[in-house]
Design goal:
This protein has 14 helices and five strands. The chain is α/β, with parallel strands linked by helices and 341 residues long. It has a five-stranded mixed β-sheet, with helices on both faces. A hairpin with a 2-residue loop joins β3 and β4. α6 runs antiparallel to α13 and α13 packs antiparallel against α14.
C-alpha cells in the first residue's frame, strides 16, 4: 500500500507538470530527427581544383565523386585559403601533385584515397604513382583531435557557463533576492549588467584556464594567437551567460532549467563543426547560422588550425557580440514579470 501511494504521488506529480511530460517525449524526438538529418545527408564529395590534368583523369575524378573546379592558379590558391575547395591537383611531369587545405584530416584522407583509386583505375596493371602532397594548414601528422579540439573548447565553455549561470540566477529568483532588488530604485538593465559582469569575471578565468590547458597541457594544435582564442572563448561564455539567465526566467526549479539542455545545447553540437556541414541539406545549414556556437567554433578553428588573424575572425566576433546584446535586451524584458510594484 505504501509503495502504491508513492507511485501514485509520483504519477500525479508528472501529470501536473505538463512541460516535463512534453519534454520527455519531444526532446528525444527532436534530437533523433536532427541526427537523422545530419547523418543521412549526402555523401561527402571532395572539392578539387584541377590544373593541367589530362581529361581522362579529370573525368575519372568526377566519376569517383569529386566536385571539379577549373580555376587559374591564382584563383585556386585563393579558393584553398578560403576553404572553398579541399585540394589543388596538378601534374609535375607525369606525377600528380596535391596541395591540401589541410585543416580537416577526414577531408585530407578522402582526397588522397580518391586520387589513389582513380590512378589505380587508370593503370590497373601497374603500381599507381604516389602523389607529392603538401599542406596549406596542418600536416600529415595532424590528428583528428586537433580538428575537433577548437569546437570542443567552445562547446564546453558554452555548456557549463549556460548551466551554471541559469541555475544560479534561478536560485536568486527562488530565494527572493531578485524580487527584493526589483523593489528598489535599481533599473532592470542595471540588474542584468551587474549579473553579467559579476558572472563574467568567473567565466573569464574559466575560459582562460580551459584554453590554456587544451593547448599547453593536451598539446592541441595552435597556429594562431592565443589572445584571439581567449577573446572568442570569452565571447562564447558571455553569450551562454546571457542565454542561461534569460531562459532561467521560464523555469520554476533546477530540474526545469536542465530540461533546456536538449532543446538549446544539443542541437548546437550538430552545427558547430563536429560534423561536416557540406553533406547537410542547404536549409539545414541555414539553421546552423542561428546558433552562436557555430560562429564561436568557426572562429576558434580559424585561429588554432588555420592560423588566421583578426580580419578572418572579425565577422564571427561581431555576430557573437550581436547575440549577446540581443539576449541581454531580452533579459531586461523578461524581468518585467518579476517586478511586483
Amino acid at each position: 500500500m505504501r509503495i502504491r501511494a508513492l507511485v501514485i504521488r509520483i504519477l500525479r506529480q508528472f501529470w501536473h507538470d505538463k512541460r516535463t511530460l512534453a519534454l520527455m517525449i519531444v526532446a528525444p524526438m527532436l534530437v533523433l530527427t536532427l541526427m537523422s538529418l545530419v547523418f543521412n545527408g549526402d555523401t561527402f564529395r571532395p572539392a578539387l581544383s584541377v590544373g593541367g590534368l589530362p581529361e581522362p583523369l579529370v573525368q575519372k575524378l568526377e566519376q569517383h565523386g569529386a566536385d571539379i573546379y577549373r580555376y587559374t592558379p591564382e584563383e585556386a590558391e585563393t579558393a584553398l585559403a578560403d576553404a572553398r575547395i579541399d585540394a589543388i591537383v596538378t601534374l609535375q611531369g607525369s606525377s600528380p601533385v596535391v596541395k591540401l587545405e589541410g585543416s580537416d584530416p577526414t577531408a585530407n584522407r578522402a582526397v588522397l584515397l580518391l586520387l589513389q583509386n582513380v590512378l589505380q583505375d587508370l593503370n590497373p596493371a601497374a603500381a599507381a604513382p604516389k602523389p607529392a602532397v603538401t599542406y596549406l594548414h596542418g600536416s600529415a601528422e595532424m590528428a583528428a583531435f586537433d580538428h575537433f579540439g577548437p569546437v570542443l573548447i567552445g562547446f564546453f565553455v558554452f555548456f557549463f557557463v549556460f548551466l551554471i549561470s541559469g541555475v544560479s540566477f534561478l536560485r536568486e529568483r527562488m530565494g527572493g533576492t531578485l524580487e527584493r532588488l526589483l523593489a528598489t530604485p535599481i533599473r532592470r538593465w542595471e540588474i542584468v549588467a551587474g549579473y553579467i559582469l559579476g558572472f563574467g569575471l568567473f567565466t573569464m578565468i574559466q575560459s582562460a584556464l580551459i584554453a590554456w590547458y587544451a593547448i599547453h597541457v593536451l598539446g592541441m594544435m595552435m597556429a594562431g594567437s592565443f589572445w584571439y582564442v581567449l577573446l572568442v572563448t570569452l565571447l562564447l561564455a558571455v553569450t551562454a551567460l546571457a542565454l542561461g539567465t534569460f531562459l532561467s526566467a521560464f523555469a520554476s526549479n533546477e530540474f526545469q532549467m536542465i530540461q533546456f539542455i536538449p532543446l538549446v545545447i544539443v542541437p548546437q553540437v550538430f552545427f558547430s563543426g563536429l560534423f561536416n556541414m557540406d553533406t547537410m541539406s542547404v536549409w539545414l545549414r541555414w539553421l546552423g547560422k542561428c546558433m552562436p556556437l557555430t560562429y564561436g567554433a568557426d572562429a576558434l578553428r580559424n585561429i588554432m588550425v588555420r592560423g588566421q588573424g583578426w580580419s578572418d575572425i572579425a565577422a564571427d566576433v561581431y555576430v557573437l557580440l550581436a547575440f549577446s546584446a540581443v539576449i541581454m535586451f531580452l533579459n531586461v524584458l523578461a524581468l518585467k514579470k518579476h517586478r511586483r510594484i
